[in-house]
Design goal:
The complex is a heterodimer of chains A (121) and B (660).
Chain A: E1 2-6, H1 10-22, E2 26-30, H2 33-42, E3 48-52, H3 58-70, E4 75-80, H4 85-88, H5 90-97, E5 101-104, H6 109-120
Parallel strand pairs in A: 1-2, 1-3, 3-4, 4-5
Helix pairs in contact in A: 2-3
Chain B: H1 13-17, E1 20-24, H2 28-41, E2 44-48, H3 51-57, E3 64-69, H4 77-87, E4 92-97, H5 102-110, E5 115-118, H6 123-164, E6 168-173, E7 178-181, H7 183-189, H8 193-196, H9 201-204, H10 211-221, E8 229-234, E9 240-253, E10 256-266, H11 268-321, H12 328-352, E11 361-363, H13 365-376, E12 384-390, E13 397-399, H14 401-418, E14 424-435, H15 437-442, E15 449-458, H16 465-468, H17 488-498, E16 502-508, E17 512-520, H18 530-535, E18 542-546, H19 550-562, E19 566-570, H20 573-582, E20 589-593, H21 601-611, E21 617-621, H22 629-634, E22 639-642, H23 647-659
Parallel strand pairs in B: 1-2, 1-3, 3-4, 4-5, 12-14, 18-19, 18-20, 20-21, 21-22
Antiparallel strand pairs in B: 6-7, 6-10, 8-9, 9-10, 11-13, 14-15, 15-17, 16-17
The chains are: A alpha/beta (121), B alpha/beta (660).
Chain lengths: 121, 660
Amino acid sequence: MHILVIEDDAEVRDMVCKMLKDEEYEVVSAINGREGMELLRNESNIDLVITDILMPEKEGIETIRELKRDYPSIKILAISGGSRFLLHDFLRSAKLLGADLTLSKPFVKKDLLKVVKLLLE
Amino acid sequence: MVKKQKKSVSSGNQDQASYKIIIIDDDESVNRLIQRTLDREGFRTESARTGKEAFSKFTGRDDEILLLDYQLPDMTGKEVLRSLSKKYQRIHFVIMTGHGDEKIAVDMMKLGARDYIIKRPNFIYLLTPKIKRVCAEIDKERHFMQTEESLKESEEKYKASFNKSRDAILVFSRERRIVDVNQRFVELSGCLETELESMHLQVLFPETADPKTEERLRSMLHGKEIPIFEAKLLTKNKMIIPVEIGVTMLTNCYDQEFVFQANIRDISRRKQAEADKTKLEEQLRRSQKLETIGTLAGGIAHDFNNILTPIMGYADMALADLPSTNPLRNDLEAILNGAYRAKDLVEQILLFSRQIEKERKPLGLHLIVKEGLKLIRPSIPTTIDIRQRIDDSCDKIMADPSQMHEVVVNLCTNAWQAMEEKGGTLTIELRQVEVDAATAKSNPNLKEGQHVRLTVSDTGTGMDDAILERIFEPFFTTKAVDKGTGMGLSVVHGIVRGHHGDILVYSEPGKGTTFHVYLPVTSSEKKISKKELAAIQGGEESILVVDDEEVVLNVVQKMLKRLGYKVDICNRSIDALKTIRRHPEKYHLVISDLTMPDMTGLILSERLQQIRPEFPTIIMTGFGESLQEDILHHYGVHEVTGKPIIIRELAAVIRKVLDT
């Protein structure tokens, strides 16, 4: 399974990558939405994109929207530290933004793996 | 051009012209001689030959002087005067007698003659100076009388203004005893005029015991003016009235060398207005401060979560990699525990800064209050008496139940902890109140209208102003370090403000504290009168309403029908889309819920735009501001209206969309 991680915070990005690599996932990463979209154009085998929502900035939302439009089959997991609002009603709120699931920061490995597995099954 | 000024020939002329000399003498030649002489000097003259003629010439004016010969054909000068004095009070006259009649002259002087003239040869040279002297004398008298008159008049005026003045006036002596007061002061002080007589100022103005007062008076005696100052007047009924006082020194009044006049103005209204304004500004400042802290804290929380992520994530992974016997596990567990605590704290900060917006629903607050009380009751010591007055019939509020629960538990916990040592009474009250215009005005965070009010009171330690000022600030706490984070009340504040309500607090050290939480009742249940409805603009267009909740659908349908629209409803967004595909022109407008199971309102709107560009859509949402402008625009949403749906707002939004 191939996963693209889009996250501007280097420590969070590295950690997420490590957590996934430890579980034998193929992982590539990008530091923002633009770079992420470029990577996607070259790597057609991505199954899941994990992206920071970067609320309230436009970039995260736009990335999700573009992903939905250009790669409707790729699953999207949004992670955010901004607000627990998204956590409230998982599926409903996630759908609102076009993400399949969301995860709020901070989280530990098992939290991440739980949602990743849910999306890739 | 320079006008040449006319120089008056004789400065005395004018004075003489102001007197009329009536010459009464039967000797034709003498009479004419006198008249000619006086005419030359500038006097106005008239002549009479007999006493009888004199009567007709004299009019009794103060500027007439009789130049009276004693021996007249028909009567004596004395008789002339006697009959004139019956009619007139003041008669100026100069008597003329023949040589040898000096005794008569003296008699006449006793009767009030201004002077006498003995008709010796050449007496005419003495005449003019004598008459002039008499005129000057009368002038002086008249001037004196006028001064006296105007003095009397001004005194009367003063008395009138003294008594009718809107300011209270008080005159006091050097010894600070009352000498005089006006009517307004009598009213203001509530004392009788007789009680005020000689009263010492200190009785009415206890502050004047202050040595400053003595200093002020002394400096006034040295000719210094003192500025208007504020003081407190103690009335007979022991009321304190704030006043403004201006003191001036008067000399030679009230038979004293110096007295002081105090003009006293009641400024209680102004003071009240000032106090209200200060209070309002203070509230505004405090609430702005909390907003600022909230924004700041919310921003920090976001970054803080990012920072916590690797701390927590790596500590957890390292822990998983270590064998269970490794002593480093304890250290890592400590790191992990710390990180979890930090995570909880950040969540509370987000609650305070209102960045957590949960979905709200109509809620009977009384249920939450009762449930919350049941939960904390076991932890409350038995020395605390719990009283509940909960009105079950209050209208519902739009609220998040878990957050309301937090408000109740937090306030009650604070209340009983304030009474933990000595015991006391914890009172919880819930009732519906109307916030009127005046209350709304003095509490900027409250809007007019029906509110549910939750009151939590304790009879515990209470707080002073310095503490009250800061209780809603995050991390502010008076409790022991291990007793709380200082987030409780700030979270309560954040929740209440997030629900468009307000929290007010009253406290007194040693007496206790009362918190009032005001939350607006949901207006969807409010009946709207026909008259009110008439003022709301409706229309006749066709509207499709989409919502997965039947209750909402029915309410909105009913509202729209009352407004005159043709309405269809649909409880699935997919079905709504199908309907529009089949009849793209049938509906003028789609009103849709935001969150629905198979397709959100946003996606529905987007699809509608594909069928018919610029298809008018309105989204109903309980999230309100959390939908951003650019998202709405992207999905082609025209307008958003908040839940609960209020007919007035809905009607306005519909017209806005359909009319532009």
